[in-house]
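hi! just following up on the protien thing from before. the input was this:
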Amino acid sequence: MSDQPHDERGGRGTSDANRTDATPESDRTGTADTDPTDRDTADADSERDTAAAGRTDPDASDSRSASAMERAETDDPEGLSPEGAGEGANAHGSDALMWISGIVSLLGLWIAASPFVYDTTVTALWNNLLIGAAVFLIAGYNYYRYTDGLPTSVGAMSLVAILGVWTLATPFVVEMVSDAAFWSNVITGLLIALLAGYVAYAGRSVEATAPARAEA
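and the predicted 3d structure came back as:
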């Protein structure tokens, strides 16, 4: 009889041990697995919050715009897109017109100096001196406009072209003593008329197309 209570206590101890072993491992460690559905919902909420912050934050929008511009410059560093190509062509055209204006200015300087190189009459001397000085100054002014970032002065270069035509005609109107002076005026006047006329025509074309580009 005395052994039976002892066995009952042993049975109760074994039962308690079984209950302890049956406790889930997550309960013993104090952590629980997260439901995958809850994780997906949390991720979606986080993405929506991030997108909303991007829409309302002007700094973020500016950053995205700057990044887009940097990518465009990286993709088209030479300005080879249609718009970039047009701007590049205008820049190269302005450089060409600038140098042509400079050449015309130097031709005017030669016209003014030629009477002191070749034998000529007093009338031809003063004609060439005045016309050459005018061509030198007006074409030089147009050259300066380009260096200052301004467009062609169409009126100024048209006047230079007219002065070139007069220089070309001068030997047929005013007596020249030497053949060298005769041909100097003819050739130089022809060059001035053609080059100055081209610069004036190109400058007028640029002015005509500028409003169209602005509206586009």
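Residues 205 and 211 are 11 Å apart (CA to CA).
The chain has two domains: 35-73, 94-215.
cheers
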